Amino acid sequence: MEVLISSLSSLVQGFANLTWQAGVLILIGCLLLYLGTGKNIEPLLLLPIGFGIILGNLPLSTLSAQDQGGIINLIYNTGILTELFPVLLFIGLGAMIDFGPMLANPMVLIFGAAGQFGIFLTLLLALALGFTRQQAVSIGIIGACDGPTAIYVASKFARELLPAVSIAAYSYMSLVPIIQPPIMRLLTTKKERATLMPPAEKKVSHRVKVLFPVVTGILTILIAPMGAPLMGMLMLGNFLKESGVVGRLVDVSSGALANLVTLFLGLSIGASMLGGNFLRWQTILIFILGLLAISFDTVTGVLLGKLLYVITGGKINPLLGAAGTSAFPMSARVVQREGQKANVRNFLLFHAIGANTGGQIGSVMAAAVMLAIMAGMGMTPS
Question: What is the model's pTM?
């Protein structure tokens, strides 16, 4: 009986310490769990984040990312603040990416560049709304549609915004299949979306695939050294894959390593999303600006696709421009699906994957440029 009374007393005390802000965040965490399990929307991202939000907002649990000495605080300090998780995740990403479609049709790389314009447009909007330069850069990088890149930049220049920026980046990455299609349909006609692309005929040799990550890594790091940790690890992972002689390292990088880092990263980022700090107008603005950034990326990519459609006499499907973001491979899948809705004979996936991998390179380069500008202005990391 005494044990029951003690348990009930602890339960009452727990509810008494539960603020309404924490309650709202717990409901948001449950919503993310529902989207991941019930709707199968990017469960690898949403499940750890959603559960982390719930754990971090439970009173007296010491499971938030800010609870000194707690296990999640240890993971957060070790993997997020040191930028270790984003860098490790890029090794796994590189081991999963096939740059073959991009190398077979290098022209699609231009979509990868166009898919980064939202970063710079959002940067200007953030500055106009009163955010500091460091904060504006961290918010703008959400437009890279790349969670690890967003974490890497925000952890350097705006750690106070890291939870909001990280959650926004990963949330919008997960919601790309919902965000992009309306914009794509709005900016294109059915005739344009139905444009058939020729099948890929050019074969990329093994030698080219092996040389690509080495040459690209050297050139891009010489051009933009601030992005060296991300670009270097991305190209390392891809070189391991294309070399064909270290299958076990590739399996570990693209499998166990990537999955483990994703789990810890999502959990610790979710546990940093606390009601008292998160439910503020500043956070709402960050989410709005992040949505605008990814929307601008899609708009500029599709508009470039329409321009190429006109220039080539209708030989380029404008939908390919939407794959220029680095939301790999979600954007490429969206392009394929929308193209087949307009024409069942449309097969855009190969070309879209090329643009999507180009967007991955573009996002890292955009982040490196941002960091270089900040360093040139004498702004040091946090």
Answer: 0.86
